[in-house]
Design a protein that fits this description.
Layout lengths: L3 H6 L7 E5 L6 E2 L2 E2 L3 H15 L3 E5 L16 H11 L3 E4 L5 H8 L6 E4 L6 H4 L3 H12 L4 E4 L10 H5 L6 E3 L1 H14 L6 E5 L4 H11 L5 E4 L4 H7 L14 H14 L2 E3 L3 E5 L15 E4 L8 E5 L1 H12 L3 E5 L12 H12 L3 E5 L1 H9 L9 E3 L3 H8 L4 H7 L1
Parallel strand pairs: 1-4, 1-7, 4-6, 5-6, 7-8, 9-10, 9-15, 10-11, 15-16, 16-17
Antiparallel strand pairs: 2-3, 12-13, 12-14
The structure holds adenosine-5'-triphosphate (ATP) and 3-phosphoglyceric acid.
3-phosphoglyceric acid binds next to loops.
């Protein structure tokens, strides 16, 4: 892959419009950024381009808007945070490829930075139709002379700005993707065993799919978070009103059977913290009906929002002898203190082991920091959850393939 240094030495970036596809999909609460890790992660690339006198256009998605503008998912806050971190003004365009974006880009002097509005405010960004995506990529290409791919968290998405745009402009890989791939590669090559994978989080259908491949690679798979309920349902348990991917129960049963045949250990929670309602993450108001129940006694009207204390002990024991751990997805709704213990227990388990530890995912990385853990104590904190999982599966990721061409 061509690097930024190659771009600087080759076509040169000074005075050129360089489109940086970042992943600024930061966790937000009440309109405020709760963790800016993903913005900090892409800073080295932006600073390098600024210092080389490029006109830098930063683009990203935020959340999952429905292909049209939705103020809830504006990148304005992220642009403001980027300006603070850079210590210099950042222009913000209120559209993505319209007149505001063109004005913002035309107004850039060498060494200046603009952020354009959420790429997913345009249906073409995520379209499954090649022509529709291509049309949007053409509009994006009109804004820039060169392309730098550095949104590691989104490289597994075949989206216009990730996959189609680099085919239209001279392109290079950014510093963040370079680092991420370097570390993750280590987990696909000479991995030290036992190799334990911990999975949780809320993007259940996305992440269930990766288990198929992980079964051939990991020695032990620990499952918590929103994902655990599909497993518990597959074992015949009632899961009340918990997050459940009903259409995947049969698939999960097959995973469990295959794991047994192939000697891969699945470790499922034995207890859970439940409540009748989802907690208020804005006010963090205390939840007065939290109960710890065995997984065979989940009450019908309650939802599981964290693993329970016995599971915390079990998971800690299963992490203790690991030599390599990859963890994606919080064990519970860690954003509320009543449901953060499971996630803290796994973070502590990783730190107490002698394993090489990789934590992947926007929310998982944020959880580690927000719960007060020192991120420098982990082997690597990846900005990509789904992206790192798919990389570890050995899949060709559209965003990396496009940069290789
Ligand atoms: N039992 C649960 N029920 C509902 N939501 C849950 C549960 N456990 C965890 N979550 C939620 O999962 C979310 C994070 O999941 P997600 O799959 O997005 O992980 P991630 O680390 O961000 O990975 P990615 O980078 O792929 O998005 C958190 O906001 C957390 O509140
Ligand atoms: O949070 C993530 O994993 C990335 O930003 C990708 O977001 P997506 O899952 O909405 O495509």
């Amino acid at each position: 892959m061509q690097t930024i240094d190659d771009l600087i030495a080759g076509p040169g970036v000074a005075g050129k419009r360089v489109f940086v596809r970042a992943d600024l999909n930061v966790p937000m609460s009440d309109g405020l950024i709760t963790d800016d890790g993903r913005i900090r992660a892409v800073l080295p690339t932006i600073v390098k381009l600024v210092e080389a006198d490029a006109k830098v256009i930063v683009a990203s998605h935020l959340g999952r808007p429905k292909g049209e503008p939705d103020p809830k998912f504006s990148l304005l806050q992220a642009a403001e945070r980027l300006a603070e971190l850079l210590g210099k003004p950042v222009a913000f365009a209120q559209d993505t490829v319209g007149p505001a974006a063109h004005d913002a880009v035309n107004g850039l002097e060498p060494g200046q930075v603009a952020v354009i509005e959420n790429l997913r405010f345009n249906a073409g960004e995520t379209s499954k139709d090649d022509a529709e995506r291509g049309e949007f990529a053409d509009q994006l290409a009109a804004l820039a002379d060169l392309y730098v791919g550095d949104g590691f968290g989104a490289v597994h998405r075949k989206h216009a700005s990730v996959y189609d745009l680099p085919a239209r402009l001279p392109h290079a890989v950014g510093l963040l993707i370079g680092t991420e791939v370097g570390v993750l590669k280590r987990l696909t090559e000479d991995v030290e065993r036992p190799y334990v994978v911990v999975l949780g989080g809320a993007k259940v259908s996305d992440k269930l799919a990766v288990i198929d491949n992980l079964l051939g690679k990991a020695d032990r798979i620990l499952v918590g978070g929103g994902m655990m309920f599909t497993f518990l349902a597959a074992q015949g348990h009632q899961v009340g009103t918990s997050l459940l991917q009903e259409d995947q129960i049969a698939v999960v049963k097959e995973y469990l059977a295959r794991a047994e045949r192939e000697g891969v250990e699945f470790v499922l929670p034995v207890d859970a913290r439940v409540s009748a309602t989802f907690p208020d993450l804005k006010t963090k108001a205390p939840v007065d009906d939290v109960e710890v129940v065995g997984v065979d006694a989940m009450p019908a009207g309650k939802m599981g929002l964290d693993v329970g204390p016995k599971t915390e002990e079990l998971f800690a024991a299963k992490l203790a002898d690991a030599r390599t751990v990859f963890w994606n997805g919080p064990m519970g709704v860690f954003e509320h203190p009543a449901f953060a213990d499971g996630t803290s227990a796994v973070a502590k388990g990783l730190l107490d082991s002698d394993a090489f530890t990789v934590v992947g995912g926007g929310d998982s990385a944020a959880a580690v920091r927000l719960l007060g853990f020192d991120e420098t104590k982990f082997g690597h904190i990846s900005t990509g959850g789904g992206a790192s999982l798919e990389y570890l599966e050995g899949k060709t990721l559209p965003g990396l393939a496009a940069l290789e061409k």
